[in-house]
Every structure is written in C-alpha cells, then in structure tokens.
Fold:
Amino acid sequence: MSSVLTEITLLSEKDCFHIVERHKSEFTYPLHQHKELELNFIEHGAGVRRVVGDSIEEIGEYDLVLVGSEGLEHVWEQGNCKSKDIREITIQFSAGLFNSDILSKNQFNSIRKMLSRADHGLAFPVSTIMKIYSTLDRLAAEQEGFIQFLKFLYILYELSLADDARVLASSSFAHSARDTESRRILKVKQFINDHYAGDISLEKMSELAGMSPVAFSRYFRQCTGRTLSNYIIDIRLGAAARLLVDTNRNISEICYECGFNNLSNFNRTFKAHRGNTPREFRALYKKHKVTV
Structure:
C-alpha cells in the first residue's frame, strides 16, 4: 500500500492563517494531506489536473477549492497546462479558528454549513470566484494583520453564499465526521457505512430512524442535500475508489464487495459519477501516490 505525504504547514499557533502567493510554470508538489483547512486559488491554470480524494478533474483558467478535512489527500498537477505563469494563492487555517460558540451564532450560519461541506473538498464556480477576486488578489500584500483577517473573513462569507459550490470527494473516501447532524441521520449513516455491501432499502432505513418512509425520505434529503439512493451510491463508489487505490484486487471482486449487483452497472455508474471507468481511475490515481 502506498502512503500520502503528510505536510507540516508553516501555520503558527499565534496566527489566524498562513497565506502564500506563488508564480510558477509547473506544479511539482506531490499528493499530500495536512490537518489544517486550506483555500487554494489557481489562475491561468487551464489544463491543470486537480485531485481531491477520489475526484480527478481538469480545471479551467480559474480554480478555487476549499479542503476542510484532516487527512483528505489532494494535489494540483501539471496535466495539460501550457501556461508559463501560473498564479497560486494558498491560505491555510486551523479548524479551531472558529470555535463552536462562534459558529453557533446566526451570523455564521452559512460559514458553518460551508465548512461542514468542505470536509469532502468544495469547488467554487467562476461566477463566485469573480465576486471575491479583487479582495483575494490583494490579500497577500496587505500589511496590517487585522485588516487582512477581516478581508479573509469577508472572502469566507461570500464563498459561503454560493449555492452552486460542488462537493468533490465521495463520502466514504473522505472519512469525514458529521458531529452536527441529528442522531437519526448519524444512526442511518453509520448503518450504511457498515452495511453498504448489502441490500439497503428505504423501508429499512426509515424504520431505523423511527419515521414513515415518506417522512424519512424528505427528512434525509433536507438534512443531507441528497436522496437516500444517491447517498448510498456515493458511499459505495467511495469504498470502491479506496479499494482501487489501495489494493490490487481485481475490479470484478471490488464491484460485488461494494454492493453493486453486476460489473456493467458498476462500470457505468462509476464513470457517470467519477468521469472515468474503474480501470482508468486506478491508472490515473496511482500515478499520484507517493511512498514516504
């Protein structure tokens, strides 16, 4: 099994965040993880390959991603990028920067929800990037630390209002917890995590939650933003992606071990959600693994 580089960041305990701006012609840093949250901005990066968990995408001219989970591996690679002046702004901050008391305040509702979604990596659309571009553009050059922090807080707030920000990594691949969710939802998610390879029905899950199937279906979507069936598929695909990355088991074996009833359905579903077939994904992702 390959390991992922664990980065020790330069963030001091006395600092709110660490920001660095770089201009470069290529990406060379390997697949890595760290305990801090990270907001990463790329400009003039069309063709760069971005990997966050089991999400592998080629980015456009602008890219902005919030990585919010400790241990969620990620990397930006050269890919098909031909630019000779790639601009990168990276902001890393501690999970403890906003404690539970602050996040419980009404004014922080949208930021709290965004940070929770960012456990799986969150990509923002170009329209949102343009809203905060001028502030982000000058952030690293700001000399007054307090003003710099206020501008950073403004950026987070504006990003938290983006309803069309996309979650990147699948749930089971990212290994994220959801401490703020209701006991009913946590109970159901734990059952799915433990039994995703078996038959999981709406009736069984609604019974586990102590609700009618109709009420539970509505409640689950309200709490998670996804239907139960889509969530189960997400868990199964995440488990399959992890096995593809970390083991040499054959694809057919992985298919049935993760709850798919036939290989063609597994291949079709995996490609629809991940953009590659299981075989292509394994080949792509293993190029990023680094033994340390």
About this structure: The first helix runs from residue 100 to 103.
